[in-house]
Known about the structure:
By secondary structure, the chain is α+β, with helices and mostly antiparallel strands. The protein contains 18 helices and five strands. 57% of the residues lie in helices and 7% in strands.
Amino acid sequence: MPDIYLPDTPKGSRFGWPRPARLEEFKTRLEARGLATDRIVFQGLNQDLPIIRIPIDLPKYRLVNGRTASLQVEHLAINADLRPDLFTGDPEMWDAQEVQHELLLKLGRLSDLDDYFEDTTHKQVNPLLLDEEGFVVNGNRRLSMWRQLLHDEPQKYGHFEHIEVVVLPHATEKDINRLEAQLQIEKDIRADYSWDAQANMMIAKMERDDIKAEELCKLYKMKDTDFAQLLDMRAYADEYLRSRDKANRWSEVSSQEHTFQRLVQSRSKLSGVGRKEIFKEAAFALIDDPTAVGRLYIAIPELAANLDKVVERLASEMDLDTDAPDDGLEDLFGGGLSDESDAQQTGLIQALKDPAQRAQAREAIGDVLETERQVKKDVKKAGYLLDQCAKANSYLTAAAKEGLRPESKLTGVAKQLDEIETRVAAIRAYLAEHA
Length: 435
């Protein structure tokens, strides 16, 4: 790998002073007498820590930031030329701090922090919390906003040239994690953290900090079932993105929390590995373009409830190649794809993975779900039996009149007619007994 020029940050840069300069400034400022204090519950103690005023350029952003967890991996996915350890390597480096600044600005604008602080009457109220090295533990978004406003219009926003901070005493990463959870997660994770950022943060803490799932549940006051569901949602979203050649593009699914929640919940209720796989691939096809089915968080459970009818419809309409390579599906089914049902399931899974057939699949699924919705509406009517028979007659009349053409697809038609005759016989038997 060629050498990459990674400039250090000079004193006076917008993105943090060098470490020795930061520590010297802290020492000088903390020696002043009569400093106001801020009470923090830290390391299991109520601590009254001094508040100091420092230049806004001094602190550095904390790269291990839960809110930017998804944005960081997406940024690396989009910008493949960047060094892969941009956010996991040396946090002192200027290039990492600059990118983190832009990501924090993006989050700040999403939460309207920019509009709030653009009003010059809105000044700093609460001090930022820094660790002993000068990295921001709490207040990263605010700092990015203040820096940007000051940079763009220094005369208008000169009140941000110096900011108030509290420097925490020496602490372990576990101490910082507990404080972060206390200050941010407990009160506002639903408001400020997208579901994917929360999930990616949890994964990072388990992999990077070797924190067990049980400890994270306790730390962030989550039920173990909710924690497991969140990670399952992330796993499906990650699989979906990879299957669409969009690995780590988390902004593509950030608004689909309820969709992936319903996917996890609905798939767990299905039996059979093959049926579960078909359901997942069909759901992925709907996520691509939900216009055929409406609101996905409603359509996904409906897909699971009517999966057999959907499978039947798809199998009759889609181009299934049951002789194609199974791409590992034989292992999925436990080996031995010997019977016709397994071969059909394999072919259907492959067809749903085929980009050329997904639009057709969405249309068919949408038709089935809409039909079932209408059935639910009509089923309570006294004239339901007659209405359905009239509809069936209308469809068969149209099929006999318009469908008997040389180019019509005949595969599966005989099976459908056999099933229709079975249903007709059942209705006639009921009429003979009750009419």
